[in-house]
Amino acid sequence: MEMPKHAVQWFEIPVRDFARARKFYEAIFDYQMPEMEMGPTRMGILLHDQPGGGVGGAIVHSEGCEPSKQGTIVYLSGGNDLSVVLNRVAQAGGQVVVPKTAITPEHGFFGHFLDTEGNRVGLHSMK
C-alpha cells in the first residue's frame, strides 16, 4: 500500500438524541451545524475545510450506532487553543474528563470530554 496523506478519511460520532447532541456541538464550537440525511441515517457535519482537503466527520444518529466512553477516541481540532472549546463543555451539558494537558512543545496540547451522549472525545491544539 502507498503512504496515505491522512490516517483518517472520515469519522462518525454516534448519538442517541440527535437534537441534544447537535445543540451541544454547536455550543462548544460556536457554529450552526449543517444537517443531512442518508436514508435512515441523520448526520450533523462537524467543522472542516472540505474544499481545502480537510478531513471531516459528523455526529450520526442511526440504527446500530451506540455512544461509548470506551474504545476509539477521535481528536477534534481545538483551534488555536483548545481551552476555548473545553471551557464551553460543562455549560453545554458535557463533562471535561482530562483538562488541557501538554504533550510536548512540538506536539501541543490535548484534552478529553464526555459529550451529552456519553462519547469520550478528544481535542487537540498547538497552544
Indicate the topology:
Layout: E1 10-14, H1 18-29, E2 35-38, E3 41-45, E4 56-61, E5 75-77, H2 83-86, E6 95-104, E7 108-114, E8 120-125
Parallel strand pairs: 1-4, 5-8
Antiparallel strand pairs: 2-3, 3-4, 6-7, 7-8
Structural class: mainly beta
Number of strands: 8
Radius of gyration, in Å, reads: 15 Å
Structural domain count: 1
The first-to-last residue Cα distance is 34 Å
Task: Please describe what this structure looks like.
It contains two helices and eight strands; from the N terminus they run E-H-E-E-E-E-H-E-E-E. By secondary structure, the protein is mainly β. It has a single domain, classed as 2,3-Dihydroxybiphenyl 1,2-Dioxygenase, domain 1, CATH 3.10.180. The protein has helices at 18-29, 83-86, and strands at 10-14, 35-38, 41-45, 56-61, 75-77, 95-104, 108-114, 120-125. The protein starts with 9 loop residues before the first strand and ends with a strand. The relative contact order is 0.22.
Task: List the main descriptive attributes of the protein structure presented here.
mainly beta; 8 strands; 127 residues; globular; 2,3-Dihydroxybiphenyl 1,2-Dioxygenase, domain 1
